[in-house]
Write a structure and sequence with these properties.
single chain; alpha+beta; Glutaredoxin; 45% helix
Length: 88
């Protein structure tokens, strides 16, 4: 299974929803809480993943590839693509 990393802030309801979905599916993930250095991390994430505009959270990375936030994760789950991406 590919490594899953989720960048979060402690006050974000969508971050908590993403964590809950991953936990419900028994998908192990590494959580990186950027709350204390939020502006710095958002800038670094934007530069590293070439994100145009404001960098939102959660940012979910699967196998080194950014898939987006909770909405993207939920869509992948609902279409059955999440399992495929994790195994590819």
């Amino acid at each position: 299974m590919k490594e899953v990393i989720i960048y979060t802030v402690d006050y974000c309801p969508f971050c908590k929803k993403a964590e809950m979905l991953l936990n419900e599916k028994n998908i192990p993930f590494k959580k990186i809480d950027i709350t204390k250095n939020e502006d710095e991390y958002r800038k670094k994430l934007g530069e590293y993943y070439d994100i145009q505009g404001r960098v939102t959270v959660p940012q979910i990375i699967i196998g080194g590839k950014r898939i987006g936030g909770f909405d993207s994760l939920e869509e992948l789950n609902n279409t059955g693509e999440l399992e495929k991406i994790l195994q590819d």
